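Reminder to self: tokens first, then the designed residues, so the page reads top to bottom the way the pipeline ran.
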């Protein structure tokens, strides 16, 4: 049998749907934590230290590159403590709910023509829906801890996440109107094949026409991940530490992974929705080479968005609770509605 015939026979083998799904989910389970480890090091520890004119971690590994691995091992070795009056079952499940809701977002994020776990016709709807499940885990953690400060942090987080879900969804609507689809893969294609006033040199990345939506999306993401200046649910100076104050060891590590994993998941969504995702405006988007180059292109764009998210985190002071709610209900939501109306008008006229 010739090499070409052998390759044809190999490609003709059909893998069962359940097997391919397990393989894809396994890749996500292995790649996402590894990527979060590397990206967390680059953008959390080193970026913050450079912004504050210091070196950051230097001892664990070359140039401190293994610091997060050392922190993870430290958390795993710590004692797993349950408060005496806590609901043990709910207390134990809460971090898993938060972490699973984060990993489920990655299922629909495309990094190439075929490099996606599940291409859904309602991909963006799915991503936003599963991301909102984290509030359930946060409320579980706050209530089950039998700690008034944890409960207060959980209620703060619930109010904050519910308020900023609206501008987050409305910011995406402008992109959906322009692309005419909820499929994330087709949104990528629409930007790569689009034109700006008849010129397609850079395609039509929606950040140009949806810069207002991009701004609203980033602010809402900052609040959804409870990062400064929207970190009232975990304000150490006010409520000791928020909904995770009673957690130790690997369960606290799950909350940490969920927070930063969600930040990078939303950065990936922003890259797909506004920056063209894995595609470039030239070349055959169906070519298998994009399955290799696409993840690299996507990574660069994700890093750019993540840099903005963490720059905001280390720059602005914490808002008061009333300021946070006022920003969402009186500014971001009306602005996003105006953006939808303007986008709809241009869609019809042009």
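Designed residues (350 positions):
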């Amino acid at each position: 049998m010739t090499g070409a015939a052998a390759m044809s026979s190999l490609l003709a083998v059909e893998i069962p749907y359940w097997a391919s799904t397990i393989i894809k989910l396994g890749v996500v389970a292995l790649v996402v934590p590894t990527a979060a480890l590397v990206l967390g090091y680059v953008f959390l520890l080193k970026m913050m230290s450079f912004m504050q004119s210091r070196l950051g971690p230097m001892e664990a590994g070359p140039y401190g590159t293994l610091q997060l691995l050392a922190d993870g091992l430290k958390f795993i070795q710590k004692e797993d403590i349950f408060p005496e009056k806590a609901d043990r079952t709910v207390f134990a499940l809460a971090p898993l709910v938060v972490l699973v809701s984060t990993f489920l977002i990655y299922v629909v994020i495309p990094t190439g023509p075929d490099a996606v776990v599940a291409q859904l016709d309602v991909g963006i709807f799915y991503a936003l829906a599963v991301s909102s499940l984290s509030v359930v885990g946060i409320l579980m953690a706050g209530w089950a801890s039998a700690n008034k400060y944890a409960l207060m942090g959980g209620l703060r987080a619930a109010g904050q996440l519910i308020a900023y879900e609206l501008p987050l969804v409305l910011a995406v609507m402008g992109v959906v109107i322009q692309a005419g689809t909820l499929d994330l893969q087709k949104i990528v294609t629409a930007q790569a094949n689009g034109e700006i006033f008849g010129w397609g040199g850079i395609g039509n990345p929606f950040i140009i026409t949806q810069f207002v939506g991009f701004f609203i999306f980033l602010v809402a993401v900052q609040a959804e991940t409870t990062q400064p200046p929207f970190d009232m649910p975990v304000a150490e100076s006010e409520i000791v530490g928020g909904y995770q104050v009673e957690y130790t060891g690997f369960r606290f590590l799950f909350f940490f992974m969920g927070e930063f994993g969600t930040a990078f998941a939303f950065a990936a969504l922003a890259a797909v929705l506004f920056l063209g995702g894995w595609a470039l405006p030239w070349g055959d988007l169906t070519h298998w080479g994009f399955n290799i180059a696409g993840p690299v292109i996507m990574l660069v764009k994700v890093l750019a968005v993540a840099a903005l998210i963490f720059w905001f985190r280390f720059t602005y002071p914490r808002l008061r609770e009333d300021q946070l709610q006022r920003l969402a209900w009186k500014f971001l939501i009306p602005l996003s509605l105006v953006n939808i109306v303007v986008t709809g008008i241009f869609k019809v006229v042009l």
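Residues 3-12 have pLDDT under 50 and may be disordered.
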